[in-house]
Amino acid sequence: YTVTAVSPNNSCPSVNFTATIFINLVTPSVLTGDTTICSGGNPLAFILTSASMGSGNTTYQWQSSTTSAVAGFSNIAGAGTTSATYDPPAGVSITTYYRVITTSILNGVSCFVYSNVLTVIVNTVSAGSLSQTQTICSPGNPNPFTIIAGASGAGTLSYQWQSSTTSPAAGFTNIAGETNSTYDPPAGLTVTTYYQVISTSILNNIPCTAISNTLTVTVTAAPFVQNFV
Fold first, then answer.
1. Is 66 exposed, middle or buried (0-12, 13-18, 19+ CB in 10 A)?
2. How would you class 120 by CB atoms within 10 Å of its CB: exposed for 0-12, middle for 13-18, buried for 19 or more?
3. Tell me, what's the pLDDT at 21?
């Protein structure tokens, strides 16, 4: 803007005064890549698809919220940099929302804008728990197994029963065709066998799994009966 000062009757030379208003137009960053991970997983690093632009010096501050995509945001410690990328640490166990604040400082005046929100969806899977262990005689027929505390997950659930004759902590292999929430072992069991079930939840094409406790079927020798004539 320019203003001209003129004295009465033009008795003095006119004087021009100029004032400049600088507009620091800061554009928001654009985040893409909403992702789904398993509980405790490690999201991929966030990269700005379209970085902010401003007339001054630009810095970034990443924020997160576990409340919602519109509230509860707070600064992430150590994530205030001049870098337009952020790599979240591993171990994310709850769905979390992220955004970045871009600040542009021009002539000592700070202007800032918020990006859109990026969501990391966490699929927490529970395998449930199996009913009590059993003891049978050899060869015997165990009672059917049922998941007494139901498996859960945010996606579509499926099951795979496994068995081991080695130990309750190793040697498990899939039981062919046993993919329901219940399992009825066949008769004729002659050796102590351990069972567990793997629950899988698929959300946004990402499978997450959890393993149940171990159920033991102890097989004992049938009692010896002596016939006397």
1. middle
2. buried
3. 87
- Which pLDDT tens digit goes with each residue over 60-95? 899 999 999 999 999 999 887 767 788 999 999 999
Task: Report residue 150: phi and psi, to 5°.
Answer: -60, 145
**Amino acid (1-letter code) at residue 191:** V
Least confident of 30-34, 38-42, 53-57, 201-205: 53-57
Higher-pLDDT residue of 190 and 226 is 190
pLDDT, position 223: 66
Cα 10 to Cα 5, 6, 7: the distances in Å are 10, 6, 5
Tell me the pLDDT of the chain averaged across its residues: 90
Say if residues 158 and 127 touch (Cβ distance below 8 Å): no
Residue 213 in contact with residue 129, Cβ under 8 Å? yes
Please report, as a single letter, which amino acid is at residue 134.
Answer: Q
pTM above 0.90, yes or no: no
